[in-house]
Every structure is written in structure tokens, then in C-alpha cells.
Design a protein that fits this description.
The structure holds 2 protein chains of 2 kinds. Chain A is an alpha+beta fold. Chain A contains 8 helices and 5 strands; from the N terminus they run H-E-H-E-H-E-E-E-H-H-H-H-H.
Chain lengths: ~170, ~80
């Protein structure tokens, strides 16, 4: 039996149809690399110019998604962050790739739909470092064959190298 | 109540069994295609997820603030 596509797959298809390059980040992406835990929002990183972001917005609205939050919408490069609520109540959060690192996250993602690498998720979680991120960090550090050179380079760039070193020792 | 060395050894063994069980579950999970791993994640949310707290500001502002402060933000 073919499984019913989850809203994660549906959302990614809509974004790609609108012309955005995208990768799943956040809790669902972490769940692709470690034993899954309950997570609510679908977090997606998108690389798109302002015109494409507008197309994304239009495509989602036509699919009955409702925009509930926006940050940075007044910038020439378009918004940093958009939160939508889907027709089933699911939350879809889009983050715009406005740093070289975020664009690399999309380029290095794998699978269909594309999911960020364990290393990139670790860096994103180290930067956020909220209570709920700390369990994800501990779990992601157990993923086999992590690329430590890449991790250390990115951690240094983002000023989370000391935190990474501390967590690696534990 | 006295705890014997045998008790401690038994709990250590149980811990090792538990670790093995997690390792097996993870290996099975990682053997699935990405789409199925995401499907499992979504099904877990459907079974146990809670509505988000409307006061939770979880909106990635911290990431963009840091990127700007470090000169890594490219508008």
C-alpha cells in the first residue's frame, strides 16, 4: 500500500513547484538521523529570490495555508522567516537562506524530500542552543561517521566551537 | 537496603541491553529511505503531538541576529 504523503512531503512539493530550492531542517530532519522524538513544526530552509518567495507565498495560500507570522518582510531581499498554518493545523515554518552556511545546508542535503545533513543540523542546533535543542545535539552527536573537520570549521565560523568541544568531551 | 555488587552488575547489564536495543532501532530507522523516516516522524507527531504554545516565540530570530552580528548575513 502506498503511504499517504505527509504534510512534510506535500509542503516540500509546493515549495519546489514554486521554484524554491529547499531542505528540511528542525525536529523532523533530526528525526531522519536519530531515533524519532515527537516534534510539531515542519521547518524548511529555502533559497529563493524575493519574486520566488512571493510565488511560494501564493502557492501556499492557494493550497489553504494561512500566513501567521513574518519577520523581515520589508527588506529588499525579502523576509527572513514565514510561518504558515496548513489546512490540517500543521505548522510550516520557512527560513530564508541568507547566509553562505544556509545555502550550503541546502546544497548538502540528501534524500527525497531533501533533508539537511546531521552535521548541518548540529551546527543549527548549537547556534540555537535552547533547552529543546540540547537533547537533539546529544542525539545527533551519536550519528556515526560525522564529518568533524566540517563541524569544527562551521562551529568556529559561528562562534559555537567552545560549546561543540565541551559537548564532544561528554 | 544493601546493594550488592551483583545488583550493580545486573543493572549495568540491563543498561547495556538497553543501549543495544536503541542501536538496533536506530540502525533499522537509518536503513529506511528518507521519505519513510520522515513519514515515521510525522506519524509520531500525529499520535503524540500537542498544539503549539502560541506564546512560544520559536521563530529563528536568534539565528539571523547572530548572522548579522558576525557579518555573515547576506541580504
Amino acid at each position: 500500500m502506498t503511504p499517504i504523503p505527509s504534510p512534510i512531503t506535500t509542503a516540500l512539493s509546493l515549495l519546489v513547484d514554486a521554484g524554491a530550492r529547499a531542505a528540511i531542517i528542525g525536529g523532523h530532519a533530526v528525526n531522519a538521523w536519530v531515533e524519532p522524538r515527537v516534534t510539531n513544526d515542519v521547518d524548511v530552509l529555502i533559497h529563493a529570490d524575493p519574486a520566488t518567495v512571493e510565488r511560494v507565498r501564493a502557492v501556499l495560500v492557494s493550497a489553504s495555508f494561512r500566513l501567521t507570522r513574518e519577520h523581515g518582510g520589508q527588506q529588499p531581499s525579502g523576509p527572513d522567516f514565514l510561518r504558515f498554518v496548513g489546512p490540517d493545523g500543521s505548522v510550516l515554518e520557512l527560513q530564508a537562506a541568507k547566509t553562505e552556511f544556509q545555502r550550503a545546508v541546502i546544497a548538502r542535503s540528501s534524500g527525497n524530500p531533501p533533508v539537511a545533513s546531521a552535521e548541518d543540523l548540529l551546527i543549527l542546533k548549537l547556534i540555537a542552543n535552547r533547552t529543546k535543542d540540547q537533547q537533539d545535539i546529544r542525539n545527533l552527536l551519536t550519528v556515526p561517521a560525522l564529518d568533524w573537520r566540517y563541524l569544527e570549521q562551521r562551529a568556529l565560523e559561528w562562534g559555537v566551537d567552545t560549546l561543540l568541544a565541551e559537548l564532544r568531551k561528554r | 537496603m544493601a546493594v550488592s555488587e551483583a545488583d550493580r552488575e545486573y543493572l549495568r547489564r540491563l543498561g547495556a541491553y538497553k543501549a543495544l536495543s536503541h542501536a538496533e532501532a536506530l540502525a533499522e530507522h537509518l536503513a529506511l529511505p528518507m521519505s519513510e523516516r520522515l513519514q515515521r516522524s510525522w506519524e509520531l507527531y500525529l499520535r503524540h503531538g500537542k498544539p503549539r504554545d502560541p506564546n512560544d516565540p520559536d521563530d529563528a530570530r536568534g539565528f539571523y541576529d547572530r548572522a548579522r552580528a558576525l557579518g555573515l548575513y547576506q541580504p
